Amino acid sequence: MGNWIINHGLTSFILVVWMGINIFLFVWFYLFYDLGDDYYYTRHLLGSALAWARAPAAVLNFNCMLILLPVCRNLLSLLRGSFVCCGRTMRKQLDKNISFHKLVAYMIALMTAVHLIAHLLNVEWYNNSRRGVYDKLSTALSNLEDTDNTTYLNPIRKTDVDAQQSPTYFVFTTIAGLTGIIITLALILIITSSMEVIRRSYFEVFWYTHHLFVIFFIGLLFHGAGFIVRKQLTTDPPHNYTLCKDRIEEWGQIPQCPLPKFGGGPAQTWWWVIGPIILYLCERLLRFIRYMQTVQYRKIVMHPSKVLELQLVRDGFKMDVGQYIFVNCPAISRLEWHPFTMTSAPEEDFFSVHIRSAGDWSDRLIDIMQHLPEGAQGPKMGVDGPFGTASEDVFDYEVSMLVGAGIGITPFASILKSIWYKFKTSNPKLRTRKIYFYWLCRETHAFEWFADLLQVLEREMEERGMGDFLTYKLYLTGWDQSHATHAWVHFDEETDVVTGLKQKTHYGRPMWDKEFEEVSKENPSSVVGTFLCGPAVLGKVLEKKCAKFSDVDPRKTRFYFNKENF
Amino acid sequence: MGKIEWAMWANEQALASGLILLTGGIVGVAGQFRGWQFAAYAIAAGAFVCLLEYPRSKRTKGTSVERTGQYCFTVCVKSFGPLTRNYYVRAFLHAALSVPAGFLLATVLGCVCLGIASIIYLAAAIRGEHWEPILPKKEIVRKPDDSMKNPPQNPPPRPPPETRRKRVDDLEGAAYDNPIPVGE
Question: Which among A56, A94, A373, A449 has the fewest CB atoms less than 10 Å away?
């Protein structure tokens, strides 16, 4: 339970607050339009469809304001930097920005649907009133002319259009209607191209179609124009609807019932969205400025299995462990930015990324690098970042269990290197005395560079007589008969046949019960932090084991599971 | 952008359009709109488009992700053969289906969305894509080899017991002693 509150408490709180604001806005504006006196006559023509259209409109205003904010990654980084005082849990929330963006998008989609349906009904009822289908009051209200004093209530003025096409004609000839159709269409296209299937397979379609949001916001700014939603204005003398609603013939002829006057309000959405739009423009400008900064190549290394290591230098670049950057190479594609976790430690005077061959862009990059002459600088690169909350918690625990699965070991390269640097310089920030590292992968193909790193660390530790500092275990979960035979033949050699490391490769998945027991036994009175970068299923398993092997007695071993979002 | 199968996006767009047509139609009929017959048509057309587009096609490259419970729909759609396999047919079908929905405000959005889906399907058809059903792989039953059926009846030939006795004084050396000479 305590673990859940630490890992999920703040997120749940933020979601509850967000949902609460949504519900409040919906109910407030619903009642405003459903009970307000100045909308009595409007409601007579439209019924509750008026309130059903205006309430989601308010929720839409709020959410359209929010949706641009989570994608301003540079501004979020700035925020993160200035919150250093406010505790890591708060800053970790900023890592869930895309999830929040999606949640707000779902709400926008839902509210658009409600808003659209309510307005369809509204237009239909207005049309019917105009044609005299309803009672006398409705017809009288609809007949109010659009004079100099704009006293009309029913926005449908033309009657010489075919009755069935009148709603369509009205929608396509008003600013509100036309912008409404256009932005709903943009929204639908954005949503269909953002479906996970499309996003994971054809990122470009998703990315380029998503830019329709520009049309969405421009349309949204003008959507409220045209004074379509109208309320009763105070006249002198006042027109009391309770008194006058049944005396339609006497309107304008008796002093208690002058002709009622109606008016609409100006567009208000821009109040909500102008701030975030400006912030987003600043964000894009910032990304452009960062892109223009020169990035120098310090070293380009081609590792086996088509893994490219780039060691880069940029003025004023400061990173923390576990952060990631976006890389752009105009020679390959001017508009694509790809994220990579950094594999260098902050103590080094450069930053590095390891790029695997995993698609069009990376293949072309590796190809270009392979054809470079020795010692030459590579193609121009743009680097945006670093982003992500630093994984500093790793340094706080006396004993750490680090679990990396598959590609998830990448941030651990940075962490392990940093821990080793801090250990060598006896950095007081480092409280870690012992590290257990578990590396799970189907095959070591494409991760030989990581094995090399472990080899280097192993050697350095042996030299200093600190062989015990790091214990690592590699689990090959994708072994087959040939692996087994090979291992069996070479089993009495000192170094492992797969990785060349002193510690042997295990086959299959780790038996966590055994591992946790071993850690418990070797560290009888410590607090152990467990960190995972890998699939969520494994996270659940580890969480359970941490709970199982933690002793209530504070003098004995206690395990804390940290759900990291690398 | 060269590896995109446009049909995948067209499929998502068409499914969404079907739902929008359906919703617009229901609103038109339930609200007894003027021209509700067009709305009734939209319900039928929307439902038909949803049923047609629900089963995803198998991708030419990469793993195909099925929609939940799409197998029965796959079988139905497959049974129409070239009519459902060919994307030109789908493009024109969607274009034709969308036209009547344009005559009523409640369904006009569905009309435009379906029109867009039709255009994307046309692009897919021009690029030579076609619909493939995702069918479960049939398990290949491996029959055991014939030699497994007839185990040997007799024990292997052995030399007589005198030559088989081991040299107990030098066990290590005895390991290399073969009772029957090997080699030439």
Answer: A373
Rounded to an integer, what distance in angstroms lies between the CA atom of residue A215 and that of residue A233?
Answer: 34
Instruction: Compute the distance between CA of residue A565 and CA of residue A536 in angstroms, rounded to an integer.
Output: 10
Nearest CB to A168: which of B12, B56, B105?
Answer: B105
In B, minimum Cα distance to A198 occurs at B9
Q: Please state the pTM of the whole predicted model.
A: 0.80
Alpha helix positions (H), B54-137: 71-78, 82-85, 87-101, 105-126
Q: How many beta-carbon pairs below 8 A join chains A and B?
A: 80
Can you read off the two tokens belonging to residue A371? 């054809």
Which of B4, B16, B35 is closest, CB to CB, to A188?
Answer: B16
- Please give the backbone phi and psi of residue A300, each rounded to the nearest 5 degrees, phi first: -125, 120
Interface of B with A in 83-122 (CB under 8 A): 103-106, 108-109, 112-113, 116
Res B1 pLDDT > 50: no
pLDDT at A438 exceeding the cut of 60: yes
* Distances from the Cα of A190 to the Cα of A195, A396, A533, angstroms: 9, 43, 31
Q: Which residue of B has its CA nearest to A169?
A: B105
Greater confidence, A53 or A206? A53
Determine whether the interchain pair B3/A204 forms a contact, defined as Cβ–Cβ distance below 8 Å. no
pLDDT of B184 > 60? The answer is no
Helix orientation angle between A97-130 and A175-193, rounded to the nearest 10 degrees: 140
Residue B105 and residue A120: Cβ atoms within 8 Å?
A: yes
Read off the pLDDT of residues A510-565 as tens digits, 9 standing for 90 and up. 888 888 888 888 888 888 888 888 887 888 888 888 888 877 666 777 887 776 65
**pLDDT tens for each residue of A445-499:** 767 788 888 888 888 888 877 777 888 888 888 766 676 676 667 666 666 656 6
Give the best residue of B5, B9, B13, B134 to mutate against chain A (max A CB count within 10 A). Answer: B9
**Angular region, A131: left φ>0, alpha ψ -120 to 50, beta rest:** alpha
Residue A30 has pLDDT above 90, yes or no: yes
Q: Which residues of A79-109 are buried (b: 16+ CB within 10 A; e: fewer)?
A: ebeeeeeeeeeebbbbbebeebeebbbebbe
> Are A202 and B62 a contacting pair at CB < 8 A?
no
